[in-house]
Amino acid sequence: MNKKILIIVSNANAIGPNNRRTGIFLPEVAHPYAEFDKANYQIDFASLTGDTPYLDALNLANDSDNLAFLTGKGWEAMQKAVKLSDVNVGQYDAVFVPGGLAPMVDMPENVLLKKVIKETYERNAVVGAVCHGPVSLLNVKLSDGSYLVNGKNITSFTDEEERGYAIADVPFLLESALTKQGAKFHAAAVWSAHSIADGNLVTGQNPASAKGVAEKMISILESAKK
């Protein structure tokens, strides 16, 4: 049977004191979608509220995978994202959380999201996230009371990248927050492609890393078939 992927997206469309417009960063959902689609996986979308999510970085639509997402089935499916509380996440082989600044607004403390990430991780399904998406891992506590990220090799949008991008808009620095909860954080050169797998947990640093996260997730899922 084909593997099933649930992409969980933010519903935020503004962030910070100046109401900077935001959403899901287009290549961070479009590039993984393309890889999952090529692997013939079933791809479903859920959002925190069930309302239509927002997209950012539409100026990057000339990229082939981004354009295919916008004009094909991807964006159409994302617009119809089901409310996360209505989804039986246990039927999915993996969950993936794309970034953009939006997740920094509604994902740091979302109780249901933390429960979903915990349960997905603990049943050895694959958990993937890229750029600001790893904020979904923040504050997740496992059954033993420890933070999920404690002792894990992970990455996310770095403090250095944030200082050159949205330091005035974000409520906190994600790298620092993950490190404070015990993550073994690995940063590559700013804006370079960089993704890490630690067991069934896969994270990527920035938009350039989204494809690599999906590839690593697929590698783990395919090895589990054997």
TrEMBL record:
Residues that span the membrane, as ranges: none
Pfam families attached to this UniProt entry: DJ-1_PfpI
Keywords: Glutamine amidotransferase, Lyase, Stress response, Transferase
GO MF: glyoxalase III activity; transferase activity
GO biological process, any: methylglyoxal catabolic process to D-lactate via S-lactoyl-glutathione
Domain of life of the source: Bacteria
InterPro entries attached to this UniProt entry: Class_I_gatase-like, DJ-1/PfpI, Prot/Nucl_acid_deglycase
GO CC field: cytoplasm
DJ-1/PfpI domain sequence ranges: 28-218
Similarity comment: family membership: Belongs to the peptidase C56 family. HSP31-like subfamily.
Name of the protein described by the UniProt record: Type 1 glutamine amidotransferase domain-containing protein
